[in-house]
Amino acid sequence: YIDNIVAQEVLDSRGNPTVKATVILSDGTVASAIVPSGASTGKREALELRDGDERFGGKGVLKACENVEVAIADELVGLSPYNQAEIDAIMKELDGTQNYSKLGANAVLGVSMAVARAAAKSLHLPLYRYLGGSNGVIVPTPMLNIINGGAHADNDVDLQEYMIMPTGFDSFKEALRASSEIYHTLKKLLAEDGHPTALGDEGGFAPNFKNNEEPIEYILKAIEKAGYKPGDEVSIALDAASSEFYKDGKYELKGDGKVLSAEELADFYANLVAKYPIVSLEDGMAEDDWEGWKILTEKLGDKIQLVGDDLFVTNKEILAEGIEKGVANAILIKPNQIGSVSETMETVRLAQRNGYNCVMSHRSGESEDAFIADFAVALNTAQIKTGAPARGERTAKYNRLLEIERDLLYPEYIGKELFRR
Ligand code: PGA
Ligand code: ZN
């Protein structure tokens, strides 16, 4: 049974405080989990409880830690750690709000993840096996964010993430090697042209560019120069995070000096898709612009993967609405948007039953915790987005996936099959 639960304020990759929860079982098992934190957050995400006082510029999480140690521990101590659904349901009921605004999703998710990890550990099972049973066999194809813009960098690039997707490989290990080689080639190409090679929040390069298209040109050059075939072996994925540049019903692309309607923005993307080997576009339209999303889905939905992040916020009710209205064809999965392990699993299952692809995802503020690597394998999301192949908080996830691939009896890497539609 759960003997004790404690919490501590630790730092995330941006140097901001976040919650580390630790669960101690009666058999002596101790397991912890650290909660991540986003910068370009969706409006309907579960609430991240911050102290709002003078410490850490208001970002302290002592209140959330206290909620773990008092309110939550009071309910959970004495219970079995092996019933994740029950544990998560009890915390949801204790909170009593729609979005965890009482306890804080950072408090609840920290405990939810730590309970799962403690249960796995005490059964001597790897986390992916505990959460996924014998089904978890697909090592996800990564989306690696190698040029950072938007809210994750101080440049004039409007689109937030320019990612490579190494689809044409037989294993995660080889796919990661190619990605690392491309990353280093890109660094050289940028430096040769006099661009700074300082990194953005997710480990990608973050110089200024002529427009929002030039980063794609650089990435294609890097793929080729590193000896790989664009499209066949390595494709491009974008996260526009367009809610960030949506103002008064229009999309302001500062990098291109343009203000576009949803229709025009969809044409802008369609032009990019026609020109470049782009396989996936996330948050192409803003979270409040469901009309724009419909236009985009009609235009590109049968050509590429359209991922809803801020749009769906890992929420199964909002996803159900999207499925019904035929909006997007894939969903980004961020456990801290919804607040617990069980609710994340429910959303993934709904998506998978309805033919929506799932992309497990980190946040821009991360930690050394690699929970999502195991979670992606457990749920067979087949895709994961966890930043550049650099910076410890990003490589923690990739390195964990290397380990899982090595340990699996029959690991599958299905990059080539992902976008056959
Ligand atoms: P965030 O960015 O973690 O800052 O929200 C990630 C994303 O938009 O996918
Ligand atoms: Zn996003």
TrEMBL record:
Pathway it works in: Carbohydrate degradation; glycolysis; pyruvate from D-glyceraldehyde 3-phosphate: step 4/5
Cofactor: Mg(2+)
Subcellular location(s) of the protein: Cytoplasm; Secreted; Cell surface
Annotated residues for binding of Mg(2+): 239, 282, 309
Active-site residues (renumbered): 202, 334
Catalytic activity: (2R)-2-phosphoglycerate = phosphoenolpyruvate + H2O
Note on cofactor: Binds a second Mg(2+) ion via substrate during catalysis. Mg(2+) is required for catalysis and for stabilizing the dimer.
Binding-site residues, (2R)-2-phosphoglycerate: 160, 334, 363-364, 385
GO biological process, one term: glycolytic process
GO cellular component: cell surface; extracellular region; phosphopyruvate hydratase complex
Residue ranges crossing the lipid bilayer per the database entry: none
InterPro entries recorded: Enolase, Enolase-like_C_sf, Enolase-like_N, Enolase_C, Enolase_CS, Enolase_N
Its EC number(s): 4.2.1.11
Pfam families: Enolase_C, Enolase_N
Main location, first listed in the record: cytoplasm
Listed PROSITE patterns: ENOLASE
HAMAP family given in the database record: Enolase
Function noted in UniProt: Catalyzes the reversible conversion of 2-phosphoglycerate (2-PG) into phosphoenolpyruvate (PEP). It is essential for the degradation of carbohydrates via glycolysis.
Protein's UniProt name: Enolase
